[in-house]
Write a structure and sequence with these properties.
450 residues
Length: 450
């Protein structure tokens, strides 16, 4: 699958372009404190950058669905790079208001590379099975951003100074975005046709809303985990635990993504999403016993094994429920939901930091919330009845169902043909119901092929 054209380039470019997500918060804190500013102000501007980046994701996703990737990401990355490069000129201790404003603008114009990449995969890999593999690898590798990013920012600040760290961060964001935008799939990608009187389909429905609430619970787990790791480091006097525990979790996430990608797993997307959420919750339960440092590092890998699977199947569910003309915006809402949940988990865990037993229970609480929401939402998350499967009415033959061109793809739908009308290999795997079409259905199909 990695040998497929453009796959490695898109994956590598997106990871490089998103490294600033892990580097900027640490780089800003080191830059502020290195210039004589307070740690509180450094934490404030770092949080502002993340908040502005997350809240603006749906807007940037909708603009990308309307105008394409280049016309949105190109000016965004230039503005982001310019803002980060301007910070050393302003100075860390000179103009707090100016620093806050520039950091806020930089967060707002962060290029939406993750949502854009998700929108490209159906074009790059039309086969659903291969697309599941690459999306699992994409999700699992994202954990590396939050391991490599902070380490790289800290090393650059120590070796060359905080100004050099910020400049390198801006350069990496620009480089990764250029790699993605100059790839053929991104240059030629066009939004799906927008139909209807308003020119756009209605995005939000009950299924999507409950899905976003559920993944917010998963994000809550991540935020609570980071504070729990810091609490473990304080309890045992081992500073390295604050980084080692999240690193173990994301290592498990990477391994889980590789295992998921190696074979086709049984069950529908909804079943896999619910099952992996249940396993994610079970993985946190041993940590409620408040084990020692070494057992805690090993046990933190267990829930991580299922994190990638939850996010991957969440994106597949978005594919099913969102209108084709607004998928990038829907991806952005899912990304925002995870980030919002993570911020809530961090805030609540920080308020309970003096109660270790409650702190250890918060990650499991977030996982339990996600599973509960998914259990109630299950009837709304499935793909529903497949196209072309109607009951025979009295006195009527069976017929195929006509759906709008921008309707969301259902699992099992095939809309890809090679030139000359020859079906792709995946198009030959039709369902038994489609092979049993009545006479009217056969005539409709024959006319379509003709």
């Amino acid at each position: 699958m990695l040998g497929s054209r453009n796959v490695v380039r898109l994956l590598a470019g997106t990871l490089i372009g998103r490294l600033p997500n892990g580097m900027v918060p640490v780089g800003l804190v080191l830059w502020i404190t290195g210039g004589g500013g307070s740690l509180a102000f450094g934490g404030l501007v770092a949080a502002l950058y993340g908040l502005a980046s997350g809240l603006s994701q749906p807007v940037k996703g909708r603009l990308m669905d309307r105008y394409g990737q280049t016309r949105v990401s190109a000016p965004a990355v230039l503005l982001n790079c310019g803002c980060l490069s301007a910070l050393p000129v302003i100075g860390a201790s000179g103009q707090p208001a100016a620093v806050t404003a520039v950091v806020g603008v930089a967060g707002l114009v962060t290029p939406p590379l993750e949502a854009g990449l998700r929108a490209l995969w159906p074009t790059v890999l039309p086969d659903l099975g291969r697309r599941r593999v690459v999306q699992a690898l994409d999700t699992s590798s994202q954990g590396l951003l939050y391991i490599v990013g902070p380490l790289l920012a800290s090393w650059l600040a120590a070796a060359y100074g905080p100004d050099a760290s910020l400049a390198t961060t801006a350069a990496l964001g620009l480089l990764g975005t250029v790699i993605v935008l100059t790839a053929a799939p991104s240059r030629t990608w066009r939004p799906a046709a927008r139909r209807g009187p308003a020119g756009n389909g209605r995005l939000m429905n009950v299924g999507l809303a409950m899905l976003f609430i559920a993944v917010a619970g998963t994000g809550f787990t991540l935020g609570a985990m980071n504070v729990w790791a810091a609490g473990m480091a304080t309890t045992y006097g081992l500073t390295m635990l604050s980084g080692a525990l999240p690193a173990a979790f994301f290592t498990g996430s990477f391994i889980g993504g590789l295992l998921y990608a190696r074979r086709v797993w049984p069950g529908s997307t909804t079943t896999q999403l619910t099952t992996t959420s249940a396993l994610f919750l079970l993985g946190w339960l041993p940590l409620l016993t408040q084990p020692g440092p070494r057992p805690a590092i090993a046990l933190a890998m267990i829930p991580g094994l299922f994190f990638t699977l939850i996010i991957t199947n969440g994106f597949h569910t978005v594919d099913t429920l969102a209108p084709a003309s607004r998928t990038t915006e829907a991806y952005a809402w899912l990304i925002l939901s995870v980030g919002t949940g993570q911020a809530a988990g961090t805030a609540l865990a920080g308020a309970l930091a003096e109660r270790p037993w409650m702190l250890a229970a918060l990650p499991a609480t977030g996982a339990a919330t996600a599973l509960t929401v998914l259990a109630f939402a299950r009837p709304k998350l499935g793909p529903g009845r497949r196209a072309g499967r109607h009951r025979r009415g009295r006195g009527r033959g069976r017929h195929t169902e006509h759906r709008p061109a921008d309707a969301p793809l259902l699992e099992g739908d095939v809309r890809h043909r090679l030139p000359g009308g020859v079906a792709r290999p995946e198009a030959r795997r039709e369902t038994a119901g489609r092979r049993r079409l009545g006479g009217a259905g056969r005539r409709t199909a024959a006319e379509g092929v003709g």
